[in-house]
Design goal:
The structure is a single chain. The chain is α/β, with parallel strands linked by helices and about 200 residues long. It has a single domain, classed as Alpha/Beta hydrolase fold, catalytic domain (Rossmann fold, 3-Layer(aba) Sandwich), CATH 3.40.50.1820. The protein has an 8-stranded mixed β-sheet with strand order 1-2-4-3-5-6-7-8, sandwiched between helices. It is globular. The model has no long low-confidence stretch (mean pLDDT about 95).
Length: about 200
């Protein structure tokens, strides 16, 4: 069972769910959800079952995490990493969370061991900075008929990240809701490839 944790960062409450004791995988939710979505889809169980330590966090202003005084979500994540004693992690995010995972990765490339983007939005904003993470292993998961994040977003990533691969799962933007078992399998296979 996943553990729900509330901690204080800079005087603001931050909530996350975690499970397992392996290397960390920090997961971000989309704009319509909060950290609990990754518990409901079985994603935390699947990641922990692969020997990793998933940490699904409410981003500032979502769920039970207070908005706080963070300039960006990337700076919030940097503070979270420090608070939890995380030096490096795989970072994953869906939609808005994917954009924030990408923003964190290009700002703090030394802290990222792998990147998972699920229907990430606004990828073009970071195209000029992708050179900083060109060798980072990346898994891109998109629905075949995603009408919120077009295929151009994953094409930009694949053009610049030499160690990226694409998985098309289901049709809709939150493809992890449509086919959670397949989604979790792709994710855990990717994590295994990083440790291989």
């Amino acid at each position: 069972m996943s553990k729900e944790v509330n901690i204080d960062i800079d005087g603001y409450n931050v909530r996350y769910f975690e499970k397992g004791t392996g290397k960390p995988v920090v997961i971000l939710h989309g704009a319509s959800f909060n950290a609990e979505i990754w518990v409901k889809t079985g994603t935390l169980d699947a990641i922990a079952g692969s020997g990793w330590r998933p940490i699904s966090v409410d981003m500032p202003g979502f769920g039970k995490t207070e908005r706080g005084g963070y300039d960006t979500v990337a700076s919030f994540l940097d503070r979270l990493f420090g608070k939890l004693g995380i030096e490096k992690a795989v970072i994953a995010g869906a939609s808005l969370g994917g954009r924030e995972a990408l923003a964190f990765s290009v700002k703090y490339p030394q802290r990222v061991t792998g990147l998972v983007l699920v229907g990430a939005v606004s990828v073009w904003m970071y195209e000029d900075m992708l050179e900083r993470i060109k060798g980072v292993p990346a898994l891109l998961i998109w629905g075949s008929e995603d009408n919120i994040s077009p295929k151009e977003n994953y094409q930009i990533i694949m053009k610049h990240l030499t160690n990226s691969r694409l998985a098309i799962i289901g049709k809709i933007h939150p493809c992890y809701l449509e086919e959670p078992a397949k989604f979790n399998m792709e994710l855990t296979d990717f994590l295994k490839s990083i440790t291989a």
